[in-house]
Design goal:
Blueprint (H helix, E strand, L loop, with lengths): L1 H24 L3 H5 L2 E6 L2 E6 L10 E6 L10 E4 L1 E3 L2 E6 L5 E9 L4 E9 L34 H26 L5
Antiparallel strand pairs: 1-2, 2-6, 3-4, 3-7, 5-6, 7-8
Length: 183
Amino acid sequence: MRISRFLVRSGLTVAAAAALPLALTAQPATARASGISVSTTGSTVSVVTSACTQINGSWGTAALLGSAQASFAQGRQVALSGTAAGQSAAWSGVSPGTYTVVVMCSNGSTAGTQSVIVSTPVTPRVTTTPAVTASPSRGVMGGLGGAARDYGPVAMGVGGALVGSGVIAAAWFLRRRSKPYRL
């Protein structure tokens, strides 16, 4: 009786362990249905897919729909280009906002639909720096071996604590070693 309960428990454990990786890698149905990947870089939106096949020299068309546009025909359309391994399309000069990318293959099927947010591009600020002089402003740190970094009080305190604990541990070890009758 004991062995059969053990086998039942271990069998359930093995079944749960075998099902766990499958449950973790399963994706929702909406994620599997979309065969496209959309990305943004600044004001450029691009889409990549491998779901379309070439018919009469055309892979299909991709459309970028704004919030006020409801159908594929109203969006900014771009023909897909690429190979059988992957097709892509891109739109440049896209203003900030939320858009929907729809890819229609040349056979009339939809490869996927995905929303994307284009944010305001951040312009880098340019600052001017004074001219670099030939000699260092603080001179050579001879006491630190010419090191360029000055360590703060926290780093020095931690280092001192480590050295101190090492000295104490070494003294304790040597004291215990010199008296073998102690345990």
